[in-house]
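Ticket closed. Logging final result for AP-1 complex subunit gamma-1.
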Amino acid sequence: AMLLLDERADVHVLLTNCLKNDLNSSTQFIVGTALCTLAAIASPEMAHDLAHEIERLIASSNTFLRKKAILCAFRMVRRVPELMDEYMPKCAAFLNDKNHGILVSTITLVTEMCEQSPVVLNYFKSSIPTLVRMLKTLIVSGYSPEHVVNGVSDPFLQVKILRLLRILGHGDPDQSEIMNDVLAQVATNTETNKNAGNAILYETVLTIMNVESENSLRVLAV
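Final structure:
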């Protein structure tokens, strides 16, 4: 269905019940496909109607489904921003999750919500120490060998964290101070002879220049 339709097609109204049935299936792959379809074609009305199902799946113990539900929620809040309130507490908890897919998808959703709402932005400022700790771990010991790219520890997760820190620290000297040390570590320890390292360094420089960082750190960025 998601290959043939978009949210403007009238027939999508008829799909709501079908998707609801699939979202309650006992087969995870059917549920996963339904989540992908919903993310691709959902109208604001469909997003409202199926919000409870997404919220339920975000709390699932099945990490495969939880990751897909979080990414589906990312598309939902773009269409219906008022749904953000339902996801904020769960996302704050998921930032402590050990599953790589859950972390990447959660940070993606949190970044989107923070860009849309000052209220959400203030809510997630309390998560800055968690993000800083996560980034330090990636620099010092790495996340997992399977996520190393050309000798660089998990560049995708590092970039996601840096982008979120940039949003959370903008215009806030107190919160920016918390991330000064780790930004300096990333800037000085990242290998620049690899594309993955350059991507991280680029995001680090943007973050340093967009938060209320120390003057010495800004000089380092330049």
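The two ends are 49 Å apart (CA to CA). No further action required.
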